[in-house]
């Protein structure tokens, strides 16, 4: 079962009954984001298939992604042991080369699902996932652009949809939006100098627009209107950002726009992406705007302050300036 033999398949029609119920619970009760539910389900499907192999419940010649788990009954879950859970994590680390962060997410997936079986459905008597230990994760060093690189990116925009693409980059860099949040913005969400954002888990927050953001939106709106007016039957009249065909812009399209403009600016191939633009916005706000971490938490829509703390990293300029302000410096 090498990494090359495992494909990313996650068809809901293949889910066992309890996993379908877990999905409903995550969506309707917990209010989890679609991405979180999908990631957890993918991890659990992999775990179920791994167990079928370990327990000799399938033909050994069956490709991993083709192992049927839709027929799993409650006894299957009742027999899960702590050892099997650890075996799966070892497999993920050694065979799939998963990082510590990915292993931690898989542990979270197991805990959430088996807690659901134990506390909500009372299918299992003991929840062994509670005894799983999280791996140590080193402090992440996030990728971001410095101020000069961010300005160069905006100055280098070249596109037949210039005002739209410039506006997209401006909102990423000034508001720190997630990709899905940007794509979901409606015209009606903009009121004066604020945008109503629907974030993870459908949580609502309001983001204030600075002058650069307001100017970019103002420049884009006439072109947006002209595009919609040129179409005989536009399908999307509410979305702020629209495609060539008048549809709400797709996440993949935005990613391609960002990738193209990074190339234009000569900074492609450095691990930068739409999410790294969010990192850049947060870093610039903290470094140059002197924004308090609690305020930054609200701007970014983080649930926990610990998530925001990754942006309080230091760089050489901040260290150099800190040394200079030492009162003994002038003696």
From TrEMBL:
GO cellular component terms listed in the entry, alphabetical order: cytoplasm
UniProt cross-references to InterPro entries, sorted A to Z: CB, DNA_brk_join_enz, Integrase-like_cat_sf, Integrase_catalytic, Integrase_recombinase_N, Integrase_SAM-like_N, Tyrosine_recombinase_XerCD
Principal localisation: cytoplasm
Gene3D superfamilies: 1.10.150.130, Intergrase catalytic core (1.10.443.10)
Occurrences of domain Tyr recombinase (ranges): 140-324
UniProt GO BP: cell division; chromosome segregation; DNA integration; DNA recombination
SUPFAM superfamilies xrefs: DNA breaking-rejoining enzymes
Recorded GO MF terms: DNA binding
A matching Pfam family: Phage_integrase
Keywords associated with the record: Cell cycle, Cell division, Chromosome partition, Cytoplasm, DNA integration, DNA recombination, DNA-binding
Core-binding (CB) domain ranges (all copies): 13-118
Compartment(s) where it occurs, according to its Swiss-Prot or TrEMBL record: Cytoplasm
Family indicated by similarity: Belongs to the 'phage' integrase family.
Functional summary from the UniProt entry: Site-specific tyrosine recombinase, which acts by catalyzing the cutting and rejoining of the recombining DNA molecules.
Protein name, UniProt field: Tyrosine recombinase XerC
Taxonomic source organism: Inconstantimicrobium porci
């Amino acid at each position: 079962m090498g990494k090359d033999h495992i494909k990313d398949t996650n068809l809901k029609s293949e889910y066992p009954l309890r996993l379908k119920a877990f999905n409903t619970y995550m969506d309707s009760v917990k209010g989890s984001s679609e991405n979180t539910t999908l990631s957890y389900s993918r991890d659990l499907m992999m775990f179920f298939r791994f167990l079928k192999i370990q327990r000799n419940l399938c033909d050994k010649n069956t490709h991993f992604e083709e192992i049927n788990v839709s027929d799993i009954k409650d006894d299957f879950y009742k027999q899960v042991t702590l050892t099997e859970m650890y075996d799966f994590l070892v497999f993920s680390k050694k065979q799939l080369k998963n990082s510590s962060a990915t292993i931690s997410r898989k542990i979270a997936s197991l805990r959430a699902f088996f807690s659901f079986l134990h506390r909500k459905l009372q299918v299992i008597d003991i929840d062994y996932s509670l005894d799983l230990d999280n791996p140590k994760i080193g402090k992440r060093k996030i990728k971001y652009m410095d101020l000069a690189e961010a300005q160069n990116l905006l100055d280098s925009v070249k596109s037949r949809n210039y005002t739209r693409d410039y506006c997209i980059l401006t909102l990423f860099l000034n508001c720190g939006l997630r990709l899905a949040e940007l794509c979901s913005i409606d015209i009606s969400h903009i009121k004066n100098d604020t945008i109503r954002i629907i974030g993870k888990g459908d949580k609502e927050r309001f983001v204030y627009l600075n002058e650069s953001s307001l100017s970019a939106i103002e420049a884009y709106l006439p072109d947006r209107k002209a595009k919609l007016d040129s179409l005989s039957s536009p399908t999307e009249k509410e979305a702020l950002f629209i495609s060539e065909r008048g549809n709400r812009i797709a996440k993949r399209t935005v990613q391609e726009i960002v990738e193209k403009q990074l190339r234009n600016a000569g900074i492609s191939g450095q691990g930068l992406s739409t999410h790294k633009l969010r990192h850049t916005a947060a870093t610039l706000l903290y470094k140059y705007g002197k924004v308090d971490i609690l305020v930054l938490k609200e701007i970014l829509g983080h649930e926990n302050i610990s998530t925001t703390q990754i942006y309080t990293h230091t760089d050489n300029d901040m260290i150099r300036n800190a040394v200079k302000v030492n009162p003994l410096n002038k003696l």
